Amino acid sequence: MKRTIQAFLKYRNLLRELVIRDIKIRYRKSFLGLLWTVLNPLLMMIVITFVFSTLFKSEIENFAVYFLSGNILFSLNSEATIQAQLSVLSNGALIKKVYIPKYLFPLSKVLSALVNFFFAFIAVTIVMVVTQAEFHTTMLLSFVPVLYLTLFSTGLGLLLSALTVYFRDLTHLYNVFILAWMYLTPVFYPIDIVPESSRAVMEWNPMYKFITYFRMLILDGAIPSWQMNLECLLFGLISLIIGMYVFYKKQDKFILYI
Asked: Angle at which helices 143-166 and 206-215 pack, to 10 degrees?
Protein backbone atom coordinates (compact mmCIF):
# COMPACT_ATOMS: atom_id res chain seq x y z
CA MET A 1 0.00 0.00 0.00
CA LYS A 2 2.85 2.38 0.86
CA ARG A 3 4.48 1.76 -2.54
CA THR A 4 1.15 2.34 -4.26
CA ILE A 5 0.74 5.71 -2.56
CA GLN A 6 4.34 6.68 -3.40
CA ALA A 7 3.80 5.70 -7.04
CA PHE A 8 0.57 7.68 -7.15
CA LEU A 9 2.30 10.80 -5.83
CA LYS A 10 5.18 10.31 -8.25
CA TYR A 11 2.89 10.06 -11.28
CA ARG A 12 0.18 12.52 -10.22
CA ASN A 13 1.25 15.01 -12.89
CA LEU A 14 0.95 12.32 -15.54
CA LEU A 15 -2.51 11.47 -14.22
CA ARG A 16 -3.52 15.11 -14.55
CA GLU A 17 -2.24 15.19 -18.14
CA LEU A 18 -4.18 12.01 -18.97
CA VAL A 19 -7.38 13.58 -17.64
CA ILE A 20 -6.77 16.79 -19.62
CA ARG A 21 -6.02 14.72 -22.73
CA ASP A 22 -9.27 12.77 -22.35
CA ILE A 23 -11.31 15.95 -22.09
CA LYS A 24 -9.55 17.59 -25.05
CA ILE A 25 -9.99 14.51 -27.25
CA ARG A 26 -13.67 14.25 -26.37
CA TYR A 27 -14.44 17.82 -27.43
CA ARG A 28 -11.86 18.20 -30.18
CA LYS A 29 -13.26 20.02 -33.23
CA SER A 30 -16.48 20.67 -31.33
CA PHE A 31 -17.66 24.27 -31.64
CA LEU A 32 -19.31 24.36 -28.21
CA GLY A 33 -16.70 22.19 -26.50
CA LEU A 34 -17.22 21.69 -22.76
CA LEU A 35 -20.54 23.51 -23.01
CA TRP A 36 -21.98 20.20 -24.24
CA THR A 37 -21.55 18.76 -20.75
CA VAL A 38 -24.21 21.24 -19.66
CA LEU A 39 -26.34 21.11 -22.82
CA ASN A 40 -26.54 17.31 -23.09
CA PRO A 41 -28.35 16.73 -19.77
CA LEU A 42 -30.55 19.78 -20.39
CA LEU A 43 -31.65 18.54 -23.82
CA MET A 44 -32.21 15.03 -22.48
CA MET A 45 -34.22 16.48 -19.60
CA ILE A 46 -36.48 18.41 -22.01
CA VAL A 47 -37.26 15.28 -24.04
CA ILE A 48 -37.84 13.00 -21.04
CA THR A 49 -39.88 15.62 -19.19
CA PHE A 50 -42.14 16.08 -22.22
CA VAL A 51 -42.64 12.34 -22.63
CA PHE A 52 -43.34 11.54 -18.99
CA SER A 53 -45.07 14.74 -17.90
CA THR A 54 -47.23 15.17 -21.00
CA LEU A 55 -47.76 11.76 -22.56
CA PHE A 56 -47.50 9.49 -19.50
CA LYS A 57 -48.87 12.09 -17.05
CA SER A 58 -46.15 11.60 -14.47
CA GLU A 59 -47.21 12.91 -11.05
CA ILE A 60 -43.68 13.32 -9.69
CA GLU A 61 -43.29 16.77 -8.19
CA ASN A 62 -40.77 18.83 -10.17
CA PHE A 63 -40.09 15.96 -12.53
CA ALA A 64 -37.37 17.88 -14.40
CA VAL A 65 -35.13 18.14 -11.33
CA TYR A 66 -36.06 14.61 -10.23
CA PHE A 67 -34.99 13.15 -13.57
CA LEU A 68 -31.92 15.31 -14.03
CA SER A 69 -30.54 14.62 -10.54
CA GLY A 70 -30.78 10.88 -11.14
CA ASN A 71 -29.59 11.02 -14.73
CA ILE A 72 -26.35 12.92 -14.14
CA LEU A 73 -25.40 10.54 -11.33
CA PHE A 74 -26.14 7.44 -13.40
CA SER A 75 -24.29 8.99 -16.36
CA LEU A 76 -21.25 9.57 -14.15
CA ASN A 77 -21.04 5.86 -13.40
CA SER A 78 -21.82 4.66 -16.93
CA GLU A 79 -19.39 7.09 -18.59
CA ALA A 80 -16.62 6.36 -16.07
CA THR A 81 -16.90 2.57 -16.34
CA ILE A 82 -17.46 2.35 -20.10
CA GLN A 83 -14.44 4.56 -20.78
CA ALA A 84 -12.30 2.82 -18.14
CA GLN A 85 -13.15 -0.57 -19.60
CA LEU A 86 -11.10 0.05 -22.75
CA SER A 87 -8.47 2.30 -21.20
CA VAL A 88 -5.73 -0.33 -20.89
CA LEU A 89 -6.31 -1.73 -24.38
CA SER A 90 -6.39 1.71 -26.02
CA ASN A 91 -3.05 2.61 -24.40
CA GLY A 92 -1.39 -0.68 -25.29
CA ALA A 93 1.29 0.92 -27.46
CA LEU A 94 2.33 3.25 -24.64
CA ILE A 95 2.36 0.43 -22.08
CA LYS A 96 4.73 -1.57 -24.30
CA LYS A 97 7.19 1.32 -24.65
CA VAL A 98 7.58 2.80 -21.17
CA TYR A 99 6.75 1.90 -17.61
CA ILE A 100 3.63 3.61 -16.34
CA PRO A 101 1.47 2.36 -13.48
CA LYS A 102 -1.34 0.79 -15.47
CA TYR A 103 -4.08 1.74 -13.02
CA LEU A 104 -3.57 5.37 -14.07
CA PHE A 105 -5.42 4.70 -17.32
CA PRO A 106 -8.78 3.57 -15.87
CA LEU A 107 -8.41 6.08 -13.03
CA SER A 108 -7.96 8.94 -15.51
CA LYS A 109 -11.23 7.94 -17.22
CA VAL A 110 -13.09 8.03 -13.91
CA LEU A 111 -11.66 11.46 -13.09
CA SER A 112 -12.49 12.88 -16.53
CA ALA A 113 -16.07 11.60 -16.09
CA LEU A 114 -16.08 13.34 -12.71
CA VAL A 115 -15.07 16.62 -14.37
CA ASN A 116 -17.96 16.22 -16.81
CA PHE A 117 -20.29 15.54 -13.89
CA PHE A 118 -19.41 18.84 -12.22
CA PHE A 119 -20.34 20.70 -15.41
CA ALA A 120 -23.55 18.65 -15.70
CA PHE A 121 -24.39 19.67 -12.12
CA ILE A 122 -24.59 23.22 -13.42
CA ALA A 123 -27.51 22.02 -15.55
CA VAL A 124 -29.31 20.86 -12.39
CA THR A 125 -28.81 24.29 -10.83
CA ILE A 126 -30.12 26.02 -13.96
CA VAL A 127 -33.25 23.85 -14.03
CA MET A 128 -33.86 24.46 -10.32
CA VAL A 129 -33.74 28.21 -10.93
CA VAL A 130 -36.05 28.00 -13.96
CA THR A 131 -38.58 25.74 -12.20
CA GLN A 132 -38.33 27.81 -9.00
CA ALA A 133 -37.36 24.77 -6.98
CA GLU A 134 -36.29 25.33 -3.40
CA PHE A 135 -32.56 25.39 -2.75
CA HIS A 136 -31.82 23.46 0.43
CA THR A 137 -28.67 23.93 2.48
CA THR A 138 -28.25 20.14 2.31
CA MET A 139 -27.13 20.62 -1.31
CA LEU A 140 -23.77 21.55 0.17
CA LEU A 141 -23.41 17.86 1.11
CA SER A 142 -24.07 16.62 -2.43
CA PHE A 143 -20.38 15.78 -2.78
CA VAL A 144 -20.83 12.90 -0.29
CA PRO A 145 -22.83 10.52 -2.53
CA VAL A 146 -20.61 11.57 -5.44
CA LEU A 147 -17.58 10.49 -3.41
CA TYR A 148 -19.20 7.13 -2.61
CA LEU A 149 -20.07 6.66 -6.28
CA THR A 150 -16.55 7.61 -7.38
CA LEU A 151 -15.13 4.84 -5.17
CA PHE A 152 -17.66 2.41 -6.64
CA SER A 153 -17.00 3.45 -10.27
CA THR A 154 -13.23 3.32 -9.78
CA GLY A 155 -13.45 -0.24 -8.48
CA LEU A 156 -15.80 -1.33 -11.25
CA GLY A 157 -13.65 0.45 -13.85
CA LEU A 158 -10.49 -1.32 -12.63
CA LEU A 159 -12.28 -4.67 -12.71
CA LEU A 160 -13.69 -4.17 -16.20
CA SER A 161 -10.43 -2.82 -17.65
CA ALA A 162 -8.53 -5.86 -16.36
CA LEU A 163 -11.05 -8.45 -17.53
CA THR A 164 -11.57 -6.82 -20.94
CA VAL A 165 -7.89 -7.29 -21.77
CA TYR A 166 -8.56 -11.04 -21.71
CA PHE A 167 -12.20 -11.09 -22.85
CA ARG A 168 -12.85 -8.49 -25.57
CA ASP A 169 -16.52 -9.48 -25.91
CA LEU A 170 -17.06 -8.05 -22.45
CA THR A 171 -17.37 -4.58 -24.03
CA HIS A 172 -20.53 -5.61 -25.89
CA LEU A 173 -21.94 -7.45 -22.89
CA TYR A 174 -21.37 -4.49 -20.59
CA ASN A 175 -23.10 -2.09 -22.99
CA VAL A 176 -26.21 -4.27 -22.81
CA PHE A 177 -25.85 -4.58 -19.04
CA ILE A 178 -25.56 -0.82 -18.48
CA LEU A 179 -28.75 -0.24 -20.49
CA ALA A 180 -30.64 -2.83 -18.45
CA TRP A 181 -29.15 -1.34 -15.28
CA MET A 182 -30.52 2.08 -16.18
CA TYR A 183 -34.07 0.76 -16.62
CA LEU A 184 -33.81 -1.20 -13.37
CA THR A 185 -32.84 1.99 -11.52
CA PRO A 186 -35.46 4.69 -10.72
CA VAL A 187 -33.85 7.35 -12.87
CA PHE A 188 -37.02 8.58 -14.59
CA TYR A 189 -39.72 6.74 -12.64
CA PRO A 190 -40.60 6.70 -8.92
CA ILE A 191 -39.81 3.74 -6.69
CA ASP A 192 -43.53 3.62 -5.85
CA ILE A 193 -44.40 1.92 -9.14
CA VAL A 194 -42.07 -0.99 -8.38
CA PRO A 195 -44.07 -3.92 -6.94
CA GLU A 196 -43.60 -4.37 -3.21
CA SER A 197 -42.25 -7.87 -3.79
CA SER A 198 -39.46 -6.49 -6.02
CA ARG A 199 -38.34 -3.60 -3.83
CA ALA A 200 -36.15 -5.86 -1.71
CA VAL A 201 -34.12 -6.57 -4.86
CA MET A 202 -33.78 -2.81 -5.44
CA GLU A 203 -32.03 -2.53 -2.08
CA TRP A 204 -29.10 -4.42 -3.63
CA ASN A 205 -28.83 -1.99 -6.54
CA PRO A 206 -25.94 0.37 -5.67
CA MET A 207 -27.09 3.02 -8.13
CA TYR A 208 -30.51 3.15 -6.48
CA LYS A 209 -28.79 3.88 -3.16
CA PHE A 210 -26.49 6.58 -4.55
CA ILE A 211 -29.28 8.31 -6.49
CA THR A 212 -31.71 8.18 -3.57
CA TYR A 213 -29.04 9.72 -1.30
CA PHE A 214 -28.38 12.46 -3.86
CA ARG A 215 -32.09 13.25 -4.31
CA MET A 216 -32.68 13.43 -0.57
CA LEU A 217 -30.11 16.23 -0.40
CA ILE A 218 -31.25 18.05 -3.54
CA LEU A 219 -35.04 17.61 -3.51
CA ASP A 220 -36.05 16.83 0.05
CA GLY A 221 -33.58 18.88 2.04
CA ALA A 222 -33.00 15.84 4.23
CA ILE A 223 -29.79 14.31 5.52
CA PRO A 224 -29.65 10.53 4.94
CA SER A 225 -29.35 8.25 7.94
CA TRP A 226 -26.09 6.75 9.11
CA GLN A 227 -27.38 3.37 7.86
CA MET A 228 -27.66 4.72 4.31
CA ASN A 229 -24.22 6.31 4.61
CA LEU A 230 -22.82 2.98 5.75
CA GLU A 231 -24.52 1.09 2.91
CA CYS A 232 -23.24 3.52 0.26
CA LEU A 233 -19.74 3.50 1.74
CA LEU A 234 -19.70 -0.31 1.79
CA PHE A 235 -20.84 -0.50 -1.84
CA GLY A 236 -18.01 1.87 -2.76
CA LEU A 237 -15.28 0.19 -0.71
CA ILE A 238 -16.23 -3.38 -1.67
CA SER A 239 -16.19 -2.44 -5.36
CA LEU A 240 -12.84 -0.66 -4.96
CA ILE A 241 -11.22 -3.55 -3.07
CA ILE A 242 -12.41 -6.17 -5.58
CA GLY A 243 -11.39 -3.99 -8.53
CA MET A 244 -7.92 -3.32 -7.12
CA TYR A 245 -7.38 -6.97 -6.23
CA VAL A 246 -8.29 -8.27 -9.70
CA PHE A 247 -6.39 -5.49 -11.48
CA TYR A 248 -3.16 -6.00 -9.54
CA LYS A 249 -3.51 -9.78 -9.90
CA LYS A 250 -3.80 -9.58 -13.69
CA GLN A 251 -1.77 -6.51 -14.69
CA ASP A 252 1.61 -8.23 -15.11
CA LYS A 253 0.23 -10.29 -18.01
CA PHE A 254 -1.53 -7.41 -19.78
CA ILE A 255 1.41 -6.93 -22.13
CA LEU A 256 0.92 -10.45 -23.51
CA TYR A 257 -2.64 -9.72 -24.62
CA ILE A 258 -2.72 -6.08 -25.70
From this structure: 160
